[in-house]
Amino acid sequence: MIFLTLFLEFFKIGLFSVGGGLATIPFLQDLAGKYDWFDINMLGRMIAIAESTPGPVGINMATYAGFQAGHVYGMLGGIAGGFAATMGIVVPAIITITLISKAYRKFKENPLVENAFYGIRPVVTGMIASSGLLLLQQGLLNGAVPEYTAFAQWIGELWALVDIKAVILFAAVLVCIRKFKLHPIIFIAASGVIGALLSM
Amino acid sequence: MLWKLFITFAKIGAFTFGGGYAMLSILQREIVEINHWATEDEMLDYYAIAQCTPGVIAVNTATFIGVKHRGVIGGIVATFGVVLPSIIIILIIAAFIKNFLEYEIVGHIFGGINAAVAALIVDAIISISKKSIVDKVCIALAVLSFIASVFFDVSPVIIVIGGAAVGLILKGRKRGAVK
Hints:
Mean pLDDT of chain B: 87
Oligomer: heterodimer
Low-confidence stretches of chain A: none
Structural class of chain B: mainly alpha
Mean pLDDT of chain A: 88
Strand content of chain A: under 5%
Order of helices and strands of chain A: HHHHHHHHH
Low-confidence stretches of chain B: none
Shape of chain B: globular
Structural class of chain A: mainly alpha
């Protein structure tokens, strides 16, 4: 029964992939070798699409992989597969978080827990800033940051990659959101339109 | 309230681009400012926990807030809300728009969106820093954690445990007197 297998395989991924959507990739590579649902080429494509559509990357990949696997039974099979895989990846999170949430509320006022979170909050801020760096690279450069060689040369290579249109849009959005506090969704939608109009 | 949870998280799911922390700015706005379902401090705690527990960060955060307000049912409803847009969009693309990535306009639209998402995360980082970084120790911790994850690829679980240990030791010496 392919749908049960899908559910269980993605349940395992949901249970063992710590640290967000991209942490699921090695597990998916495993699946590509184990079943004939999709091959490595298809997986590369699935990752690219999961990253360039709305929604959490891990969920997008689960839905896509499930569709691909169930598709041997036609369109309905694909849809059922997408649901089975997505439910599989989500159920372990619902169970663990429900348990942790109860514990968190019970111990939140405990001084030891408060002390721990005093140290945890700034390190989480640091981690968020590090993923911010990745998003800056994705948004403002045409390509990955070049390997560091000599300082002047590296700055030159970096400068050549800067997308001027994107930098202007970035600055405009940043100023507007700090100043006017509009809803972020408005900026995302408007920037999509601007991107299409200016061929960014 | 259940409906509100569902709709709010469906909105968050539909406008999450780039995964993980890219949706912070929308979460902040919807959860903290509009609906008052959590304070900014609590949100940071949720991210920390979501980062160290298995599963997708967006889903973990949704479950957390749902459970807090409506128990297990709330957790399930919020989670279903955050994944539903993904399921619909991906199924449509997988079934009908196989060459989605080859359309030039898709690239242009995402060129614009990625620039905006970069600005949104910078905005979110500024707001979060004001809340989470309250003294010099916090500055040092934030910088160290940034360096560890950018240059040394240290696992988030280890970074969070390290932060907790520093908090326990430093604050513990003052006999737990946080307030």
